[in-house]
Amino acid sequence: MSARFDGLAVVVVNYGASALLADGLVATARDLPGADVVVVDNLSTRGERDAVGALAALHGWHLVAADENLGFGAGCNVGAAAAWARGATRVLLLNPDATIDGRSVALLEDVVAREPLTLAAPVVRRPDGSVWTAGNRLDLTTGRMLPPSSESTSEMAWLSGACLLATAELWQRIGGFDDAYFLYWEDVDLSARVTAAGGTLRVVPEAIAIHEVGGTQVTTGRARSPLYYYFNIRNRQLFAERHLSPPLRRRWSRTALPAAREIVLRGGRRQLLRPWPVLRITWRALSDARCRRWGRGPF
To answer: How many whole angstroms separate alpha carbon 63 and alpha carbon 53?
Structure first.
């Protein structure tokens, strides 16, 4: 690979995933000569902080050591701010459990060089080669994510935050991620604001990233963590409160409980044998989403 990536910063938000950084980020950075690497370490444990600090010192990465867990979107914003301050003109946002090679990044770079207001993404594959995402669609009438083969008369395209390339011009125009989401749906919101600001979403089919799906999530068997349920349920409704017309918001509200049940069932039916914890999470999530529309709520 002969290309150099001066002016590019790779921004990774870490939370308890130093082992993934030691493998994936090291390999990605090695294939991007001239690129800066900014790691935002959301506070998890002292041992994890020390491990990330040692990796950063060894490989010359710039470490931003957060005093708390900022969440994904806010962490990306802090990392991007550090990148701009260090002279970057583009940022490559990359999950800790994702990797991408220099050829693919060069293809993304070509797109944003021609179209600075484009948010560019590769096709993201699982390690077995199957496609995890090649762009996504949201049905605005139902709040459901659409499978690739389906059709809808009212849909919105969005790009996964697993791997995104943005210019400083685009980032400054949209203001980065909305901190309010903390985790999940922040990339749907970002995509909506890119298009609202006159930008474009683009999947570059020849560019490939590999994603160890779920590598940064804590699960027990099939069950997901309470935070997984809370933020998926809350942020679906928060998106509606922030972006949709009153009639569509009311429609999403009417389907909030069935949608919450579908989210919970991603963790299997066994947890429904003791439904009260899940019901409390659901009630709190929907209540907080409505508060968040007006800038209130605990998160």
So the answer is: 7
